[in-house]
Amino acid sequence: MRNMRLLLCVGLIHCLCCMSSFVYGKIKEPPFILAELKCENLVNPLGIDNTTPHFSWKLKGNELRGGQAYYEIQVASDSILLIQDKADLWNTGKLKSDNSVMVPYQGVSLSSRSLCYWRVRVWNSKRQVSAWSPVARFSIGILEQSQMHGEYIGASVEGGKICAPILRKKINIKRKETTFLHVNTLGYHEIYINGEKVGESVLAPAVSHLTKRSLIVTYDVTPYLREGENDLLIWIGQGWYKSTTFGTAYDGPLVKAELNILRNGKWEVLTKTDNSWCGRESGYEDTGTWRALQFAGERVDGRILPTDLSSQTLDKMRWASVVTVKVPDHITSPQMCEVNKIYEKLQPVSIEKLNEDVWLVDMGRVQTEWFEMRMPMLPMGHEIIMEYSDNLTKDGAFDKQGESDIYISGGREGECFRNKFNHHAYRYVRISNLPVRPESEWMRSLQIHGDYQKTATFECSDADLNTIHNMIQYTMKCLTFSGYMVDCPHLERAGYGGDGNSSTISLQTMYDVSPTFLNWVQTWGDSMREGGSLPHVGPNPGAGGGGPYWCGFFVLAPWRTYVNYGDSRLIKKYYSQMKEWFKYVDKYTVDGLLKRWPDTKYRDWYLGDWLAPMGVDSGDQSSVDLVSNCFISECLGTMSKAALTLGKKEEAEEFAIRKGKLNGLIHRTFYHPNDGIYSTGSQLDMCYPMLVGVVPDSLYSRVKENMMAITAEKHKGHIAVGLVGVPILTEWAVRNKKVDFFYQMLKKRDYPGYLYMTDNGATATWEYWSGERSRVHNCYNGIGTWFYQAVGGIHPDESVPGYRHIYIDPQIPHGVTWAKITKESPYGTIGVNWKLEDGQLYLQLAIPAGTTATVCIPDNAVSCKINNKKMGIQKKTIVVDRGNYDFVFDLYPY
What we know:
Layout: H1 2-24, E1 32-39, E2 54-61, E3 68-76, H2 79-83, E4 90-91, E5 95-96, E6 103-104, E7 115-124, E8 136-139, E9 153-154, E10 166-173, E11 179-186, E12 188-193, E13 196-197, E14 213-220, E15 228-237, E16 254-263, E17 266-272, E18 278-280, E19 284-286, E20 298-301, H3 311-315, E21 320-321, E22 323-324, E23 331-334, E24 340-346, E25 350-355, E26 358-374, E27 383-389, E28 403-408, E29 416-418, E30 424-432, E31 443-450, E32 456-460, H4 463-479, E33 480-481, E34 484-485, H5 497-510, H6 514-527, H7 548-551, H8 553-565, H9 569-587, E35 589-590, E36 593-594, H10 621-645, H11 649-670, E37 671-672, E38 677-678, H12 683-692, H13 697-713, H14 725-735, H15 739-746, H16 754-759, H17 784-791, E39 794-796, E40 805-808, E41 818-825, E42 828-837, E43 840-856, E44 861-866, E45 869-871, E46 877-891
Parallel strand pairs: 14-23, 20-28, 40-43
Antiparallel strand pairs: 1-2, 2-6, 3-4, 3-5, 3-7, 7-8, 9-22, 10-15, 10-18, 11-14, 11-16, 12-13, 12-15, 16-17, 18-21, 19-20, 24-31, 25-26, 26-29, 26-30, 26-31, 27-28, 27-30, 32-41, 33-34, 35-36, 37-38, 39-40, 41-42, 42-43, 43-46, 44-45, 44-46
């Protein structure tokens, strides 16, 4: 009803505007508009986890030079109040500020279940005002376990198999009003009302460390309800909630939920989960343990599966009472990241008959996805087996990887298999026991990833660079879902910190994933053990290999999220726990250097680099110790910056002093003066000390030249690092402006290299440089930053986070003649478009409102023009603010 009134008011205002336009002529366009309103970096979030949210918006238009000068935010308990200009919760008035990212709420105190509406308008430096933004909304979730009504329920064995049951409750509604459903599952869930699925999300909720925390998801179910009787279904599946992962209080999945209706400004409970619900088996069954390499798939019995979820169909089925289960105390909190959705849908590019009743389907590229197949008419009980792989062997055989589904025919026409509570990563499907040739239109792969946006594009004159960039960007989309980023989506499906550290900056450059990191880092905080010990994987259902670089994701990820998105929530929330981890590091520090800590039930191995190419001994103990201590140095530097950001100046200085002492000790321990190398002299052993400040200024040139000479002579110009080394070598090359050194490594077509992958059929990056095991993996995606920071020259300024101030300094590889790069920042789109022509560099630059850029003049420039106006180049930099600029640099011969 409330939403209906809002629509009526908006419609009335629109009609009045149209009438005035008819009478007085064309309405003058506003000088600028507001777009992309977000609360807690989410669009219209329902059920956030705090009572002091943050608001963000972007400015677009032609009258924004100088950017925003003032803003006014209004927050109300009713959308109609905003239209009436009566903000009863918060009205800032016209407030002098240029801030438009993560502006904190400072209004009337909010509490669990508060539903709020907000809008914003801004003034520019000329005091021109925008129109009010569209009205957005947010609600506060259920913040305490004790505040949530209902009990945890699951299916009873009387209703059949309990691993993926349907739970049902009929409710009566006298009058439709705003109605929210709060769902807390141990396992996955889908919601259906009156036979219709609620929302587009799949595999909900996001991941959490289930022994410590489970997540609540809030749905607005108002559009799905009707006056009178309604059929509410919660379909649940085990997912990660298994005895083999986090342990369970019951053998099947569980759910606690309540349905609230807003009447006269107060929430009333319509229904909650208790023993009045009924349940039955659904026909779905999970077949994997969800330990590494054991994710298997789903067994779907078409003889049991409902033909539809209408009340008429469900009423004909046998139902049993549910069970209520006492679940150990743990934190329940609202989900604060994007949901998963189905995006691109692929159909086969080929179908090959392998032998009688066996078919090989090629979907064209690897994806993280569900498989869907319409079945031909088959006898009841006939079993179809679908196996999945990301690869064919060299002789063309199916590379079995342990992922498979089974469909049992119900003996009806129109049957269809579709995954629901598991997923796969595959390119190929081997279908067995299918007596008729499958048709292409019978099958689809349904790509799944988080509901986040791509924020960067890259294209240049070199087709090889475009291919590598696109493969990396696509791979990271395959790996990022359910509120974390995995090493691989099929074999381990684990949120390894090393893989995360390796590709965080690439991912955060290419996608808007601040909420993803909010959830992922939360799993790390929940995974911390007594004494500050951290695992290598978050969330942490079992042991995973790694080393300090893996654990320290908990330190670097919050800072990088702050730099890339201007979002300081993580460093504020977890700073004290970060310090706890350093106490654990100190416990295993001997004579000033970190040494191997013990394996535990939740963590094993102690690595430096990982999966470097053949011929590189990254397991040498000296190299492991050097890399690990250089990483601790990097973490100490990060902690110093985080402390300073939080206003803890003394602690910032303490961390900086510790870093300086450690750097001196690393140099004295691992530097070989006769050879001019550190430790083994590998690319990583050489560039990491340079990157973290270990190498004295007097030796820097020697170490740098030696590293480049070793690359040319020993490695024949190839990349010679693994998971840890890829982003470090990339950052070193960008900082040192060694663009041709890095470019020629990317251009190598033989082993090891990215073009070696693509020339051998890769559609996503591999786990091993040689192509063993996983062909969609997170090992080598850390080079993604090079395309934007080197070729595009776009660098965020850590002291002014969120790309509010940027440096523009393109590095042009010899042989590349043009490049077009965009980067969507929290303030708007940054555009860099350059080309070389007739001894001149043409640079087109777009800077969004509210930001400034320092443009670096090329070292070989002899003159400069901006928008046809000649500029001096003595200072080597030019500062510009919002706008579009055309630079022309005359260059010395290249």
